[in-house]
Here is the input.
Amino acid sequence: MKKLIMLLMVLTTAIVSAESNWTVEDNEMYVSGSTVHGHKFGYFKDEKWCGKELVFIQWTSYEEGLEKFKGIDVLIELRSNGELIDKIPATFTAGIRFAEIMTIAEFKTVLLSNNLADQLKNTKEIEVEFVEPKEFVALLDIKSDTFNALGFPKAYLQKYNACKVE
Here is the structure.
């Protein structure tokens, strides 16, 4: 009996640990990168795109010059558990120099494919790799990162991006 109780405690701790990798804030929820903690993959809210899956990616680079790409679309490859699932455009929406040593850039996109949205919700691991434009990718000191998506709260995500009912 003691072994069963101990096993249940270990399993419960593992489940809680897996779910704790997601950070939930007012307008976004995200998980940090495995390679660089400052890299983030997540979802954001926007009343204009109510009912759509809205993805954001935050990336850092020590190279200078990223700011000139603000407002353009970059092409990103998404892999699920190592397998390429799609290439998507994401708009470079914000970029700031931090402490004069790095740029923190934010990218946003609307997932128009329900199939892709479902794959991202049900994967254990998401790899993000920037592939185009080449001039932009050349300024990234790290071009890809992997995000542990275990514990993704499916029900909460549906509520999170849902339209507000007045």
